[in-house]
Design a protein that fits this description.
single chain, alpha/beta, 353 residues, globular, 7 strands, Rossmann fold
Length: 353
Amino acid sequence: MKLSALLSVVCCAVGLFLALSAAHVESARHTLHAPETMFVFGDSFVDNGNLPRSDLAAESRQWYYPYGISYHKDDGSGRRHNATGRFSDFMVQSDFVAKMLGLPQSPPAFSRAQKRYCHPTGVNFAFGRAAVYHSPEVMITVGEQVDLFESMVKSGTISKNRVTHSVALLAISGNDYKTYYDAGILDLTPVIEGLGNQTVAIVDRLRALGVKRILLNNLHPIGCTPLWSRASKYKECDYIGNKAALQHNKILKQKLGRKKGVLIVDLNTAFGNIIDHGSKSYKQFKNTRKPCCEGYRANNYCGRQAKNYPPLYSLCPDRSQFFFWDDAHPTHAGWETIMKQLEHPIKKFLGIV
């Protein structure tokens, strides 16, 4: 065969291969749809206003100043503040995940939505202070949030098609461990296995209801949060809390790490990168353990103030320099930095990139 003829055959073969490859990629794009709807379950890391507004107290402080204090800088309203029921100076994790989907913020809170109605962007079922197990401080467990979701699916309020093309965000952030710890149970090992199994059961329920993609937070280093580290004046993380987090995450990885349709969102590493190495990698945070807003005494809380009396809390002058907002939650700047670390794996899992 002449050289020119051989080259012609090779070129045709290569062209055919590229055409078939392009067709395959285009087909994959049409079969792997990015989520169109978002359902949120969990606690104050993702709650956007489900806890009821009442007179100022520790459990309702998220509806009062200084919560939401950074909101006016972003919406251009010029208002002094706009507390929205979020445990932050502005946005929380669910808002940042929603932004990855092209939404402006988290779907509406379940308790503030109209009955028998699902917003086109989804529903946020998360309640601050929620946990896996019941306790006096828990208004609703995470399992009961899934009950609400299930009732809306079975009634047709949330269509099966919408569930199929959705993503669920599940945040279980350690409230159970703090409850046991405060009760004097210092060895949390017996509790960890049960909490891990319950988390797996919740994931299985969501999948059985038709959710194809689930973002599951692992447990951040809870011993480094101000709530746990205040006794050391924020100089050291609590060993028991962090040990529980590592054991908890090990169980999640063993039982769900390879489960189809589940991505374990590695909050532990993202938090640790900032708390442990903040001076090197994240220079904007001058304080990685001390909160921006805190009560003057242990029994006080961010935002506490009696009428006609001075505030019983202190507030930092520059929130962008603090990783933690209050005793347990990151600032808006903190969440932004956390989610930037996690954006690529989340988008890849969801088929956005």
